[in-house]
Design brief:
Blueprint: H1 8-21, H2 24-36, E1 39-40, H3 41-48, H4 52-64, E2 68-73, E3 76-81, H5 86-97
Antiparallel strand pairs: 1-3, 2-3
Helix pairs in contact: 3-4
Amino acid sequence: MKKKVLQLEKLEIGASMLRAMAHPMRIAIIELLTATKRLSVTEIYEKLNIEQASASHHLNILKNKGVLESKREGKMIFYSLKHDKLTEIIESLDRCVEA
């Protein structure tokens, strides 16, 4: 069996993604996208009952750190998780806080 070597660059990218996710509203966005796979900005801010500007701010942070990807269709922008494995992080968090 090969020994897995941790690469500093990959660790830094992973830490940056985790820092971006480390906000309650961003976790909520990721949970929504885990359940629905793809949502527009409008759907996200309506489901979370937040202002459009706030949703856009959090979405941009998540996108810039490689957590989300976006696709423009006409005037609408749709967001989805860039990596399906991110759902496992959210599920782990849920298990950690269960009583």
